[in-house]
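hey can u run this one w/ coenzyme A bound, need the structure tokens asap thx
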Amino acid sequence: MTGKGIHWRAMTTLDLPAVDAIAAVVHPAFPEDIAVFAERLRLYGDGAWLLEIGGAPAGYLLSHPWPAGTMPRLNHLYRMLPAGPQTYYLHDLALLPTARGFGAAAAIVKRALAHARRAGFATASLVAVSGSAPFWERHGFAPAATPELREPLLGYEAAARYMVRGLA
Ligand SMILES: CC(C)(COP(=O)(O)OP(=O)(O)OC[C@H]1O[C@@H](n2cnc3c(N)ncnc32)[C@H](O)[C@@H]1OP(=O)(O)O)[C@@H](O)C(=O)NCCC(=O)NCCS
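ok here u go:
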């Protein structure tokens, strides 16, 4: 990531309206309520980051532990993180179009994976949507053969792919 004016920092509750606005631009097909963003931040603040360019919000990442081999339902409040054998789940990475191509996404993915490794997770996982699977493959993720996830993945989009990588 280049340039002094572009950096990631820990997200706070004050950022939630900006996160909501970015999501509306980047993910119109996957609407989630601001309450869902707020809940993820509350449940796992260590995995919530905001990208700023010249002091203006330009992207975010929400990530958190999650039961391996499953994914959260979209726009659903969970109250607490479910128990079970855990993976580190990258729930939502979204950059405004003007923020793309600077390596900012790569930088925060590396940071989140380093955090997950330090925290002791053996794997990271995500659902790739919007044609982003090649981006995730560049970061070591591979599609997992999970026929049982066919139905829940359809809740995202027909082309959604569950992807996993090891963190050893
Ligand atoms: C996916 C996303 C986060 C990548 O952000 P970015 O700023 O372009 O990523 P980076 O600058 O770190 O990396 C850019 C590199 O990844 C590649 N890349 C980015 N998005 C890609 C995609 N969807 N498919 C394939 N390659 C992609 C670029 O071609 C570029 O390659 P280069 O380094 O050889 O030039 C951003 O495009 C985005 O927010 N997209 C919409 C939301 C989305 O799809 N999120 C992921 C959903 S799971």
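Residues 6-166 form a domain with the Aminopeptidase fold (CATH 3.40.630.30). anyway lmk if its weird
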